Amino acid sequence: MLRSVGTDRRHCADLRTRASLGTRSARRYSAIRPIVLVLFVLVTWTSRAITAVQGLEAQLHTEPVPSDIAAPVKTALAPGGVRAAVGGVTLDFWWVKSMEVGAAPPAWASVEEGTLVGAVRLGGDFRDIRGRIIKAGVYTLRYGVQPDNGDHLGTSPFRDFLLLVPAALDTAVPARGHDDTVDLSKRAIGGSHPAVWSIDPPVTTEPVLSRHTTELGHSAIVVEVPCTEGGKPAGPLRFGIVLVGRIEA
Asked: What is the pLDDT of residue 192?
């Protein structure tokens, strides 16, 4: 059946209207697309951050100091400590009965490099802050400072680290200094770098066992070590150990 001229005109007008609406819809989509993308990125990042924090749990334990640790070092450690669970791996920490500092209140700036801080038993293979695998076993923990030579710019906002040393190689309590501590810690992973965990934040008032999210989005567990100055109690040094997160090597 033939359509009238009026019908054809209405049909053309309808097509022009649809085309106009389609153009306006495309423009609105183009305008809101960047906003949608930003929201998607934010939601994804937040979700990953929450997952990372939820994957780190900690509680106190009352286990004795492992027999794998040399007798002189073992006597410097207190029984019991902190047990952390990360990605199905259990990490048991023991801390020194007291850590000597050069001034009060305690701060890492007044701790001699290579000082014994504690020990850890890894229930399974675990990665350090640079992503290198540390085999399951028992290690001592000694304080180390990242060299200020420009080789590690942008890797961490702080230069304070705990270096892991195979327990069988660490047989004396006194501070070992930078070079000796680094050399021994390299043997924990068999590479050119020591096995390290970042201390972040270096000093905090957050409760022990609480979870701290660093400026880099890493997850740390808050712990503390009792300190002495000149052999007299100086109070605890409370800090975070980054157990979830990576920095560039």
From this structure: 84
Residues of the chain under the 70 pLDDT cut = 1-54, 149-156, 249
What does the CA dihedral 73, 226, 93, 143 come to, rounded to 10 degrees?
Answer: -70
**From the CB of residue 121, how many other CB atoms can be counted at a distance below 10 Å?**
21
Residue 149: per-residue pLDDT: 55
pLDDT reported for residue 157: 79
Neighbours of 111 (CB within 10 A): 21
CA-CA distance, 228 to 102, in Å (whole number)?
Answer: 9
Whole-number pLDDT of residue 180: 97
**Cβ contact 65:85 at 8 Å:** no
Q: 80 near 65, Cβ under 8 Å?
A: no
Q: Are 181 and 165 in contact (CB under 8 A)?
A: yes
Instruction: Compute φ and ψ for 23, nearest 5 degrees.
Output: -65, -45
Calculated CA dihedral for residues 219, 223, 229, 231, nearest 10 degrees: -150
Torsion sign over Cα 166, 167, 169, 172:
positive
Give the contacts of 184 (CB within 8 A, at least 6 positions apart): 163, 165, 166, 169, 170, 176
Residue 86 confidence (pLDDT): 96
